[in-house]
Amino acid sequence: xxxxxxxxxxxxxxxxxxxxxxxxxxxxxxxxxKAAVSQRIARFEARLGVQLLRRSTRKLSLTEAGMQLFQHAxxxxxxxxxxxxxxxxxxxxxxxxxxxxxxxxxRGLLARALxxxxxxEPAVSLSVTLDDRLVDLIEGDYDVALRVVPASGRHGxxxxxxxxxxxxxxxxxxLARAPAIATPFDLIQHSCLRNSALPLxxxxxxxxxxxxxxxxxxSRFESADFGLLHEAALAGVGLLVTLRMxxxxxxxxxxxxxxxxxxxxxPLGIYAIFAERGRPTSAARALVEHVAxxxxxxxxxx
Length: 302
Prior knowledge:
The structure is a single chain. This protein is of the alpha/beta class. It has three domains: 5-90, Arc Repressor Mutant, subunit A (Orthogonal Bundle), CATH 1.10.10.10; 95-164 and 268-297, D-Maltodextrin-Binding Protein, domain 2 (3-Layer(aba) Sandwich), CATH 3.40.190.10; 166-259, D-Maltodextrin-Binding Protein, domain 2. It is 37% helix and 24% strand. It has helices at 8-20, 23-30, 34-48, 64-90, 109-120, 172-177, 226-234, 248-253, 282-297; strands at 53-55, 60-62, 95-101, 124-130, 144-150, 159-164, 166-170, 191-195, 204-207, 212-215, 218-223, 240-243, 257-259, 268-274. A five-stranded mixed sheet has the order 4-3-5-14-6, with helices on one face. A three-stranded antiparallel sheet has the order 12-7-13. Helix 5 packs across helix 9 (282-297). The longest helix is centred in the first third of the chain and has 27 residues, at 64-90.
């Protein structure tokens, strides 16, 4: 019996088959087909010129040669597990993640996701910069950026985390004193809150399955700070157009009310972009995975 270095993976496979007492279970654990595993062991036996396993429909047993090999195979399997454990510990998320994100995320679901991540990963710290402008991740020394852009476009992003609806909302106090809103064109009569980080003339676009509406709304209050716009909406200053996840808790609590629910705007995608300077850190990958999971659990579509 002569073994080569290239036989180590097959020896480890043999050891796992014996531990599980099943070709089927070993194949499933490794993501392989049972036939492929069986053929691999058969070729190994043929090359060695010995039988290692006695197979029957109900039982799997070792030959004397198989018993001798298994003593070494078990040690190899255990060594592999120890190495995997060491690598897993080394890759545990730790360190600082420098994140750039749009200003809207400091409210609602995404903000809660960041807070939940810090609770989940005590060895990680976050440095978050909010900016609605597209920034150079390398120049800004960012590890990852979150971006909200039209879901149908191609933006060279690393990962799409979800897609959210755009809603028009106002406070109950504002809606009680303002003209009724039945169609998108009724918005012309209303005070609307404008994000000044966007181009000066931005119509609010709403659609049905059959029609599209582009409404030149009037603004009595504008700011590049979404927090101020959000507070203005809560205070009854006017109507706000935003992603649903930024105001989900306000809608549930009744602090804001959605108007024009039968109409919708083009969905916006939430993307994660990694800086192109090598492999992302385990902490940056863990953050993105946590945000993606939070969006899925909240029902934000992929």
